[in-house]
Amino acid sequence: MFNFIKVAAACPEIKVADVEYNTSSIIDCMKKAHDEGAKLVVFPELSITGYTCGDLFFQQPLIDKGYRAIINILEAIKRLGLEDMVVAVGSPIVKNNILYNCAIIIKDDKILGVIPKSYIPNYSEFYEKRWFTEGINIKDEYVDILNYKNIPFGVDLIFSHNNIKLGFEICEDLWTPIPPSTYLALGGANIIGNLSASNEVVGKAEYRRELVKSQSGRCASAYIYSSCGVYESTTDVVFGGHMIIGENGTILKENKRFQRSSEIMTAIIDMDRINTERFKNTTFRDNVRQQSINLRTIPFEYKNLEIKNFDRKINPHPFIPAGEMERRERCEEILNIQAAGLMKRLVHTGIKKAVIGMSGGLDSTLAFLVILKAFDILGLPKENIIAITMPGFGTTKRTRSNVEVLCEEAGVSFREINITEACIQHFKDIGHSPEILDVTYENVQARERTQILMDIANKEGALLIGTGDLSELALGWCTYNGDHMSMYAVNTSIPKTLVRYLIKYAADEESSKNIKNVLYDILDTPVSPELLPSDKEGNITQKTEEIVGPYELHDFFLYYFMRQGISKEKIIFLAEKAFEGKYEREEIIRWLNIFIKRFFTQQFKRSCLPDGPKVGTVSLSPRGDWRMPSDASFNTWL
Questions:
Q1: Which of 7, 143, 302, 425 qualifies as a cystine partner to 153, CB 3.0-4.6 A?
Q2: Looking at the annotation, which residues are catalytic?
Q3: How far, in Å, CA of 299 to CA of 373, rounded?
Q4: Would you kindly state where each structural domain of the chain is located, as residue ranges?
């Protein structure tokens, strides 16, 4: 379904060296994973025997029991109807009188392959080389497990079903400078499983989490990590049963460690997100060409990948971090990036003044805050910031008042230039009736304001700072050669949904009480260009989101359109999940159609954007992330 697959990490309750008990626990976990619709379940390292058997690994009865347990698992799959799920389980395997720590990959009634642990730790609390031999050089070999003959054996195995390609490594492999999963990913594996036995010491869980997160990002893959739990021997160390599922540099799921019973954890992997990243990332493609290891592809087939319970959390605001602390840190970083971009331009040009048009809206407020920050850091006087408000036919007292108070509190130079008479004269010049409230009526005001700002910037020897944001650029919701133009545009890659959080952060963390109050009122003001006359009570009548649609929807569409290049149908599906209970399907489709049409027809405005800093993963700069013909058809996307 839309190229998703549900996977699971499992941590069974075990008894050290009690193979029958452990096998029963593993099968119980398999049942639960199967019931939840998982198509892949990854167990911990040496989960059949237990990781902490020590010299018992030299005992033939333990090895024999481990072999028999693998067969019992195969038989249980058939007996209990657990087909169509790949199982990765850990057990010791002997070949040529050498003992290997292995991952056994099972599906239905077949052992698809056996992967030996590449790197055997033998430092600090680890003594694995006493029992096991590293498998890093084992390639293109086969092994027998009882009556199952010629099973592919080695670190060169990838298990493939269409665009789903599975690779596996074991514990220490991930902690090495070049993990085997790196080669597997370059060879095509896009889901990596790690069967692990990582003991707990202070601070290790955080490092382990970062390893999984970063490796999934470097490999542009999903990464399923399952470590053994509290029932391993505690003679010298303790295990916590840490389970983590990552995807392309993010953590999808993580369990609470030290659970006292068997546990499974599922997550839904978005294969489009992974494959699109690889498709677009030229560095990844270049790395693939350097791949020097010949990998074997083991085909298998899923009969049904339908997900009955779609429980993947879809963030309705993908440009905004969900956690409050992360959001605060992100806002601080973004404001610093914006200010750094502006400071470089000021220093390079030798200009010590800035001009900005202030409307009392979100975008000009954010740009104003960035200018203040840049001037603070550079030690330039605040009076060198020339803030200009230009009331017109639709300007309300509320926005006008907010601008005046904000500029007064900040200590900048403030000017008011009423554009009404100039616009009326221009209507006469071009033969347009001011009674016709059409696009000409609106754009005359926008271009008059830009002309004033540009000319004052020239007169003052100042830099005109643009205020338009990423969402407006995506929709083309800006006047060509009007507010579309500036000398440096600091908000050019900030989506509208994020603008609010940046202003709120600045209000809470970087502003005086009086400025904070003004910023909060600006946040409560409806988004509007104020180009149409206000009502009899002086309230805003022209509300942008009533015309083009909710910005939170458009930002959602933009994110998935740009980051994943997925179909319209999948975007609708994701939006339904993200905004469940808020927008009906018909409304989502309506605004998505508008987004697509406007995105294509308004490209010409983006083709000649002023310079501005990229701050996030999505940018529409024609010199950076997005090169698109201005006359491309949107029919394929509709």
A1: 143
A2: 45, 117, 171
A3: 57
A4: 4-299, 324-637
For 380, the token pair is 């330039």
Do the annotations mark residue 359 as ligand-binding?
A: yes
Q: Could you please report the per-residue DSSP string of 4-53?
A: EEEEEEEE----TT-HHHHHHHHHHHHHHHHHTT-SEEEPPTTTTT-TT-
Residue 148 known to bind ligand: no
Dist. CA 166–CA 12, nearest whole Å:
22
362 three-class SS: helix
CB 199 within 8 A of CB 239: yes
143, 199, 238, 240 from 202: Cα distances, Å: 39, 10, 11, 12
**Separation CA 39–CA 307 (nearest Å):** 10
Q: What are phi and psi of 363, to 5 degrees?
A: -65, -45
Dihedral angle, C-alpha 99, 299, 12, 178, nearest 10 °: 60
Strand-strand pairing, 164-170 and 191-196: parallel
Distance in Å from the first CA to the final CA of the chain: 20
Amino acid 282 reads T
CA 118 to chain centre: 31
Report DSSP state, residue 327.
H
Q: Confirm whether residue 193 is marked as ligand binding.
A: no
Nearest Cα to Cα of residue 376 among 435, 335, 334:
335
Asked if the domains at 4-299 and 324-637 fall in one CATH topology, the answer is no
**Percent helix, percent strand, percent coil in the chain, to nearest 5:** 40, 20, 40
Report residue 195: phi and psi, to 5°: -90, 115
Q: What is the pLDDT of residue 396?
A: 83
Give percent of the chain with pLDDT exceeding 90.
88
Residue 539 main-chain phi, psi, to 5 deg:
-90, 160
Q: Find out whether 175 is annotated in a ligand binding site.
A: no
480 is an annotated ligand-binding site residue = yes
List, for residues 91-142, the tens digit of each pLDDT value.
999 999 999 999 999 999 999 999 999 999 999 989 999 999 999 999 999 9
Using CA atoms, how far apart are residues 145 and 63, in angstroms rounded to an integer? 11
> What confidence tens digit (pLDDT) does each residue in 558-596 have?
999 999 889 999 999 999 999 999 999 999 999 999 999
Query: Could you name the CATH architecture of 324-637?
Result: 3-Layer(aba) Sandwich (3.40)
pLDDT one-digit tens code per residue, 261-290: 999 999 999 999 999 999 888 888 788 777
The half-sphere exposure of 536 on its side-chain side, counting CA atoms within 13 A, is 0
